[in-house]
Amino acid sequence: MVRRRTAVSIAAAALLAASPALTACGSGPAHPGAAAVVGDQKITVSTLQHQVNQVRDAQAKSPQAAQLTSQSGKLSRQTLTMLVQSEVIDKAAADAGVTVSDAEVQQMHAQALQQFQGDEAQFEQAVLEQAQVAPSGIDDYFRTTLQVNKLEQSLGYQPGSDTATEALVAALAKTSKSLGVHVNPRYGTWDVKQAVIGDTKEPWVVTKSASAVADPTA
């Protein structure tokens, strides 16, 4: 239970994925070499493939390799969705004057690791199973978690509460609308209702119940 709770808490970094309010333009104009474009930031196909390969390599080395690889058919689409969402959060954080230091990320990592009695391998396995995040991406995930928490605090709410989630979603919707999102049709189209690419409905796309879970430091 502790292992599952920690992994789902980490997944709260992708909190905005649950919101239908994050508006964007479907596939949009052509951008050579881009998997997606968020504002003036291009997410290249090579960047996406590198991220996907890292997850697949980690899955192949996992004791649960057969189960994990059988569930990774939509990994490219899921990964691109998360990369797009991360760009939106970065912009919202910058606009709000929110910053996250390396020291804060390392502190959160260390505190989460304590729930696994310091066993880094078990911790990484739990994150991989629950959130499809490779070990090399865990600290980026924590950084986004901290950005989300601080954004909610900047709006005057307790991080993780329902009211904080609603306020954050509204703020991110405004940011997303100002940026604009264009997705390479190869990977699908931006689904305004689901705020994901295509029909992605995997566990790391946080639902209202999961987004209320406390952060890994709790």
TrEMBL record:
Residues 1-23 form the signal peptide. Its main location: membrane. SUPFAM superfamilies: Triger factor/SurA peptide-binding domain-like. Keywords: Cell membrane, Chaperone, Membrane, Signal. It is found in: Cell membrane. GO terms for cellular component: plasma membrane. It comes from the Bacteria. This is SurA N-terminal domain-containing protein. It comes from Actinacidiphila alni.
